[in-house]
């Protein structure tokens, strides 16, 4: 039996405190969104719902704005992650070849972008000149490559034994064939890790739709949620009337319900990718 040290006890207490601080907002939002408005108005909701009901979630699922924005967010996240993985994968595989022409120069130029960028206005002008404003590509292409993710994936590819690639060349495979048939199948961990990074970033993307989208039908969930929190567009008149005119409490409960619904897909996705996430980051950080 292992002895409990002072460090282990302190570490356990610290981690428990961090877990509590992290989980309490979700617990509170779930309690409020599942409670009756009268109990919320009286401040009687804390840990568990009072007057349990799921009316707010019914309103969320029936609100066309929310469901349309939900669908837009899913499309942006799925398409954007797929595009980002393809572009990042090809770029990282090329950079992992030290014999590539001007390898060091390309690497330095890419690393510089981690510290200096073109800025918001030049990026906006580029997107406008490309003619992709107010379209799905305005959400996908500007964030198609992350320098940090590119370098992590490059390090992972550099650790793959060269003998495997040489055997592919002996079988007549091209560089593209080696990547598709040998490297990519062996890189499930790093693709899952980087894909999770991209998916979370696209799911929570708020600035790009504000800059590049003008049509409300194209807004993702984060913009709709911002409107509800800051502009007070939490639900329709029918929603207020359904709760006896208690608009403040209805909006609070409704907003919390939307927040929980918007975070649910990522929360459900992470447990399935956790083992790939840890392994992919550790392997990709062995050497630079």
From TrEMBL:
GO BP field: transmembrane transport
Superkingdom of the source species: Bacteria
InterPro entries reported for this sequence: MetI-like, MetI-like_sf
Segments forming domain ABC transmembrane type-1: 70-273
Topology in the lipid bilayer: Multi-pass membrane protein
A single GO cellular-component term on record: plasma membrane
Subcellular location: Cell membrane
KW Transport (keyword) present: yes
Predominant subcellular localization, coarse grouping: membrane
Entry similarity comment: Belongs to the binding-protein-dependent transport system permease family.
PANTHER family: ABC TRANSPORTER PERMEASE PROTEIN MG189-RELATED-RELATED (PTHR43744), POLYGALACTURONAN_RHAMNOGALACTURONAN TRANSPORT SYSTEM PERMEASE PROTEIN YTCP (PTHR43744:SF9)
Name of the molecule in the record: Carbohydrate ABC transporter membrane protein 2 (CUT1 family)
Species this chain originates from: Cohnella phaseoli
């Amino acid at each position: 039996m292992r002895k409990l040290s002072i460090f282990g006890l302190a570490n356990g207490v610290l981690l428990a405190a961090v877990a509590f601080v992290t989980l309490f907002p979700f617990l509170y939002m779930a309690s409020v969104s599942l409670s009756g408005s009268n109990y919320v108005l009286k401040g009687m909701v804390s840990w568990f719902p009072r007057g349990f009901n799921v009316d707010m979630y019914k309103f969320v699922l029936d609100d066309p704005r929310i469901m349309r924005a939900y669908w837009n967010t899913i499309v942006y996240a799925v398409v954007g992650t797929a595009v980002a993985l393809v572009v990042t994968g090809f770029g990282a595989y090329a950079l992992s070849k030290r014999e590539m022409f001007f390898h060091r120069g390309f690497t330095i130029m890419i690393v510089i972008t981690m510290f200096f960028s073109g800025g918001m206005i030049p990026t906006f002008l580029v997107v406008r000149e490309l003619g992709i404003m107010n379209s799905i590509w305005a959400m996908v292409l500007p964030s198609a490559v992350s320098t940090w993710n590119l370098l992590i994936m490059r390090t992972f590819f550099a650790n793959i034994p060269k003998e495997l690639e040489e055997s592919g060349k002996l079988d007549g495979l091209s560089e593209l064939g080696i990547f598709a048939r040998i490297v990519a199948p062996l890189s499930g961990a790093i693709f899952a890790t980087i894909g999770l990074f991209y998916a979370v970033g696209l799911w929570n993307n708020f600035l790009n739709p504000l800059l590049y989208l003008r049509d409300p039908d194209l807004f993702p969930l984060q913009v709709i949620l911002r409107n509800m929190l800051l502009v007070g567009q939490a639900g329709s008149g029918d929603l207020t009337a359904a709760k006896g005119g208690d608009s403040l409490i209805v909006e609070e409960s409704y907003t919390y319900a939307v927040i929980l619904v918007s975070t649910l897909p990522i929360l459900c996705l992470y447990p399935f990718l956790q083992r790939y996430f840890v392994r992919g980051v550790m392997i990709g950080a062995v050497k630079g």
